[in-house]
What we know:
Elements: E1 3-8, H1 12-23, E2 28-34, H2 37-45, E3 50-55, H3 64-71, E4 75-82, H4 88-93, E5 98-101, H5 106-116, E6 134-138, E7 146-150, E8 154-160, E9 163-168, E10 172-176, H6 180-188, E11 193-197, E12 200-203, E13 207-211, E14 214-217, E15 221-224, H7 229-239
Parallel strand pairs: 1-2, 1-3, 3-4, 4-5
Antiparallel strand pairs: 6-7, 8-9, 8-12, 9-10, 11-12, 13-14, 14-15
Amino acid sequence: MSISCIAIDDDPHSLENLVIDMEKLPDLKLLHTFTEPLQALEEISGSNPVDIIFMDIEMPSLSGIELAGLLRQKTKYLVFTTAHTRYAIDAFNVQADAYLLKPYSIIHLAKTINNLYPTGSVARHPFSILDDHFFYIPLKGANSDLVRIDLNNIISVEELGEDIQFKTTENVFLSAKDNFIKTLKMLKQNPSFIQVTPTVVISKQHIKSVLGDKILLSGETSFTISGTYTGLFAKFVKNNLLQENHRPDGLL
């Protein structure tokens, strides 16, 4: 997926920081940047709409609020980037979709993108490669580095002490435990995942075999079902058994 973006900020330093962060999020495609709001108004008014416009509020000659009122129809989503909270009501009045308070981190930027393009938002074809099913996680021990996790590639998500381990078909990633509950809730809402222990969620599509209470998954991964999750998993297996069709006389 490619998300087309425009960034407007009269502060070159703030604009540069935003551009650097956007480059770390591979789905964001930055089409243009502006430091002059009047120039932005002239050029954007005559161009095709984009997916997201990032816009500062306090700018000379034309404020971000005023500019947004003139350009709102030119973007699917409008995100204000500002150091001031007092404009929140004004931002709401011009139908802003998000409000990034400076100084924000790449984590805040990624969360904003995740909120605008939420995982599982397209329900008619769960996990289709044609749909946008992904989210970003901060890597453990990295300086604000993010990695994209595609739901189709997840084999398992496991809580390990103070970390969360994301095992995918491509690699294994560790992230901080802080987001485990949110991640767990998100995955459990998707019918392609099932929880098998208090600390493990697995992808149904990567189940290779079930031997008693042991589940074998892709990537030589295995887990033992425990506690109250045994009944839930047994129901899932029963619903997916290939049933034989019998003739009325009892003969095959």
